[in-house]
Amino acid sequence: MSAPRKYPQELRDRAVRLAMESDRPIAQIAADLGIHREALRIWVRQAQADAGQRSEQLTTVEREELKRLRKENNELKRANEILKAASALFAAELGQPRTKWSWWSITCVTASGPVPVCRVLDLCPGTYYDRKRRPPSARAQRDAVLIEQISDVHQASYGTYGAYRVPKQLRRQGVQVARCTVERLMRAHGLQGVHRRDRQRTTTPGETASRPPDLVNRRFTADRPDQLWPADITSLRYTTRLTDLGVVASVGSVADSHDNAMAESLNATFKTELIHRRSWRTRDQVEYAIVEWVGWYNHRRLHTAIGDVPPVEYEMAYYRSINTPAPTGAR
């Protein structure tokens, strides 16, 4: 379809004057002047509206005003959307230099274009184009490498490691990185560790049940591995089995949370890092997951209490320090 012809304003005025002042048909006047008859009819109706002869039609001045208001309204809507998005993204960085906002203008190019964004944010468009042409900074390049390494560590930890253990694991792998850098990148990419839930009381001790003596007496330290095992056992069957294996049972005082704190801490970690984070369909599925988690917990999970190393590594280091072969179960 061909584009509509544009007639000179002088020709339009002459055609309208002839149509309104003479008795000749509009079609004939349009043919004589080489104008489309429908175009001439539109011009005549608009001239009549401007002269106050057509109250149902807007005048030229009113049309121009309506066009201006619509354009202004669209610009205000776009500016409002830009400011909303900018305030959400940079609420924590309002005190930063304005050039820092040019980063956000890049993200808005596809939506509003760089010029409107820069105008609303009071930035020079040249700032955007300069940033677009500039190669990534050394920090940006290192961040791109680090976030992949951080994601690998986070995934390998079953998604449990946060900004405390991730940098420690990276340092064990030979990657020197500050904790604040890990926090920044994890926050920017939506990665976070797990946190324990509030403790709930699940058992109530019996008043008349027989109890082994308290041999530990809150001395929760040991001179060597496998000397003291905290446990949370309420079943007679398991207690009997431990006795058959030569394990001497020791039970703390009633209603004393300190005596059971170490065992409950492990239980809480187990539930937080594994059980409560997934939906389980079958018993076999739970058992397989527990086997995997226990292997990871003993061989790869970093433990703060023993210097941020896995338990097996810590135990092997102990036996090396005394020049004694480690037991088979410790390897």
Automatic annotation (TrEMBL):
Entry annotated with the keyword Amino-acid biosynthesis: no
UniProt xrefs under InterPro entries: Homeodomain-like_sf (IPR009057), HTH-like_dom (IPR025948), Integrase_cat-core (IPR001584), RNaseH-like_sf (IPR012337), RNaseH_sf (IPR036397), Transpos_IS3 (IPR048020), Transposase_8 (IPR002514), Transposase_IS3/IS150/IS904 (IPR050900)
Coiled coil: 59-89
Keyword Coiled coil assigned: yes
Stretches assigned to the Integrase catalytic domain: 131-318
A GO term, aspect molecular function: DNA binding
Region Disordered, residue ranges: 191-217
Described function: Involved in the transposition of the insertion sequence.
UniProt protein name: IS3 family transposase
Species of provenance: Actinomadura soli
